[in-house]
Amino acid sequence: MERRATKFILKWFIISIAVITIVTYAFFASRDLILGPQVNIESPENGSVVVGSLVLIQGTTKKINSISFNDRPIFIDQSGRFSEKLLLAPGYTVLTIRAKDRFGREVVKRLELVRKEGVASSTSPSV
Q: Which CATH superfamily is domain 37-115 in?
């Protein structure tokens, strides 16, 4: 009787280990589908006030197939980093970064910036 109980416990232990292994493998194999594409804008921060007209936008991506900046394709390096320069008009500007993964899932990041005109020093000749 004891031998039979030991076989039963061992059988269910092996089945449990196999099921846990299969579920863990399935999660790691499908994590790209579950998590989707990721975009992180490192600089400038959203809502920043920019004094100069030229701004450098930098960030990182994960699990993407294509990326665009204001509907214009941009390139990323091997580690998933991007860097784009942009001339801002005075006032409020909204920039859009779209990234798609190989499954067609899309993430959209908006970056809102305000360009403030630099204070020009006026030197008038003294009379």
A: Immunoglobulins (2.60.40.10)
